[in-house]
Amino acid sequence: MTTETLRLPLLYAPFEPAVHPEVRWLEQRAIEWVDASGICAGTAERNRIVATRSSDFWARFVPHAADRERLLTTTLWHYWGFGFDDAHCDSPPLNTRPDLFAALAGRVQRALEAPGSDSGGERYIPALCDIAERMAQAGPPEAFRRFVAGHRAWLSGVTWQIGNQAANRRPGVDEYLAMRLLTSGGDATFAMWELATGIHVPGTEMHHPATRALTEMATMVAALDNDRHSLRKELDHQQSDQNIFTALIQDRQLTLQAAVHEGNRLRDRILLRFCRLRQAVRPRAGQELNAYLDGLCHGIRGNAEWGQRVPRYLDPATGPDGEEPDIAWAEHSADNSLAPLPFPSITWWWDRHLA
Fold this sequence. Notes:
62% helix; Farnesyl Diphosphate Synthase; Terpene synthase; Isoprenoid_synthase_dom_sf; Terpene_cyclase-like_2; mainly alpha
């Protein structure tokens, strides 16, 4: 099957779109930081990082953030993260050397925890130290610590993924879902919601199992959407070896087209559970937690919209430079079953006690 004949189903995202009104200011300031940060090895890398449109991505997650500097600080990490991912997670030699990547990941993580750490010549470390100092000043401390923990989870997930790639093994669906929660960077991303908005959710509510389940489900829906967004690009570059579709093919011997439709049904089942659990939690949630739950919805919708517009994933033949494609959305879920999905790593999301 070629990328021309592959049919991607429309995405279901039953949330209102929103974007921060300062998105253009945000992009300008962030690009100025990218140019001054030293992370770009050359013009090609700089162009790839700018083309992620991370300002648009994050402005859709936190459309109501009141403080521009908080918003900018958290935006910078997304430009940094996409750049680091392309330079070290997806590219030789580290993308097939888990030993080398783990060594780098340890140094990177320590730089986040202890700004001023020795960069050892790694150009991404001083830039991360700058972001860490800004975040620590923005507070609250609990949110920054959650971000640090989420960052560690992301790097561990990437190490897991690179280990699979080095061993030429494809995980099945359950292992892939567990790994994808980490490789997506969702914990770090949603921890930055508090840093960007200045809204602090009380720990008793933020750490409640229902909140954790909702955060994981929002992370998973966005991660599976990114698998969809990047599929054609990965097929063209022969990089499509670890995504939800290859995991379904591994477990069920499906064709790629059948796996795409099955992956969409799986994604919609998770989204349906997210919506139902969120509605159950809202009446007993405080004002701050309800704002956070709204933020999860913005994240799902915003990621889905960004991913269908950003040059990072688009076919260059989509349209003239600068022309954004129109987006059509599914009106209904592809699977309305309320039954738990049969994957042990995520089945607990359907625990009736969560509500």
